[in-house]
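Notes from the pairing session

We agreed to fold both candidates in a single pass and log them together. This is the raw record for the first candidate, unedited. Please don't reformat it; downstream parsing expects exactly this layout.

Candidate A
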Amino acid sequence: MQKKSSKTRFWSILVVLNLLTLVYPVSLLLGCDDDTARLFAVVVLMAESMFLFVADAISFVFAYWA
């Protein structure tokens, strides 16, 4: 049996956290009935995507720096 390296664990945790963070805005977008709620859901999804992009970039730098 092979041991998981720290890089594999890093990628697994990062993917799971990203998917879990995107669940709320997507469910909000799919479950809304009026245009105001849909606009709010799209804004939240865009802001969260930008936040995840920056957080993932910082995580990549710290993971592969050493």
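Candidate B (folded immediately after A)
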Amino acid sequence: MYINNPLKVMQKLLEENYKLYKEQEISEKEYLWRIKPIDEEITRLEMATLRDTLVWRESFLRHTPKLKR
């Protein structure tokens, strides 16, 4: 079910790690260490989803400095 959607896989991994943390099976330090690469991958996948869309172009153009002539 999730195999064809890497974003869903990453979100599921986050949920599983959070559950381990809340059940005190892993420490906060371990939890943060585990989720950092997952969170970074989710960000990368979300940005890749937006790339070449109107939202991406508008956001990029608003934050790009304008050249003065």
